[in-house]
Design goal:
The chain is of the alpha/beta class. The protein has 9 helices and 16 strands. Helix 8 packs parallel to helix 9.
Length: about 325
């Protein structure tokens, strides 16, 4: 572990043979999809620990709230677990935020991976614990994930290089250059944290947003709500990921352009992040530079740190 430039805790880098624990903070999931994803992680060279009761169901949730929270608390406290990845999103993460043992979690920083509804947990681990966390694919999406998605995940958690993400078909909404720590995730999830004790911090940050299955007017409503709440005051820049099944991309970009017309910040769309065919892993909490001219989001340092071993034992 190292302390990053913004005093955030950068977790230890994953190495072949390291152990990844699987948690289910949100919805239940298909066992075949889950098994395929586990096979992908094992193929990357990692040992996978799966709780015996991870397949529990309670309606649209993967078990009772305390059960889902305890899976996370237990794996953070377990020194044998090097990283934690979520099984699936769906809904439920917001229900367990008050049940997470942040004092214990703070003492045991490690890689945590997820996206979609898991954005709620990514956000609080960053804001409450100061961790660098990873917005990336989950177990049930890895089995059918593209090669680019799998490679991006492995690079993010095991490489000693700073990541540079360049959208294949980027669209500049507002020209400019900006630097700051990156934060963000699923728009719907983050919007529902506003006004709670777990409200995200966006000031001075490069914010990235993605979503799925939200009509354009609902995207407008959420962004308008966040704007009125002051979320976008002093924002450094904005990155738009995938908005799958949300209507025409041009219409969404038009909404964003209007919402941010009073904000002199760079805005770049077209990043392969979120629910699309490719889901590139993004470290949350690291300094990066958004350059609309070069159409890139370049991180200033690796998202993980070189492991240190206690040689006095």
């Amino acid at each position: 572990m190292r302390v990053g430039k913004n005093m955030q805790l950068v977790p230890d880098r994953l190495m072949p043979g390291d152990t990844i624990g699987v948690v289910a903070p949100a919805g239940p999931f298909d066992r075949k999809e889950f098994d395929r994803g586990v096979a992908v992680l094992k193929g990357m060279g990692f040992h996978i620990v799966i709780p015996v009761d991870i397949h529990m169901k309670k309606g649209y949730l993967a078990g009772p709230d305390i059960h889902r929270a305890n899976l996370i608390n237990t794996f953070f406290a377990d020194g044998k677990i090097n990283a934690i990845i979520c099984a699936r999103g769906g809904f439920g993460s917001i229900r367990i935020l008050s049940l997470l043992d942040f004092e214990s979690i703070k003492k045991n920083p490690k890689i945590f991976i997820g996206f979609s509804d898991i954005s709620a947990i990514l956000s609080v681990l960053y804001t409450k614990c100061g961790f660098v966390v990873f917005h990336g694919p989950m177990v049930t999406s890895l089995g059918d994930a593209s090669r680019k998605t799998r490679k991006a995940l492995l690079d993010a958690v095991s490489s000693d290089a700073g990541l540079a993400i360049m959208p294949k078909t980027g669209k500049t909404v507002r020209h400019g250059l900006a630097s700051g720590p990156v934060t963000g995730g699923n728009l719907t999830t983050l919007c529902h944290l506003i006004g709670t004790p777990f409200e995200p911090v966006f000031k001075g940050h490069i914010l990235f947003l993605e979503d799925k299955g939200e009509a354009c007017y609902r995207i407008d409503r959420m962004l308008s709500h966040m704007k009125l709440a002051g979320c976008f005051d002093d924002l450094a820049g904005l990155v738009l990921g995938s908005f799958k099944d949300c209507g025409q991309v041009s219409e969404i970009i038009g909404v964003v352009d209007n919402i941010f017309k009073e904000h002199n910040i760079p805005i770049l769309a077209g990043f392969e992040v979120g629910h699309g065919k490719n889901n590139v892993t993004i470290p949350i909490g690291l300094n990066a530079t958004l350059d609309t001219g070069g159409q890139s989001l370049s991180f200033h340092e690796p998202g993980t740190s070189k492991k240190t071993f206690n040689t006095s034992l």
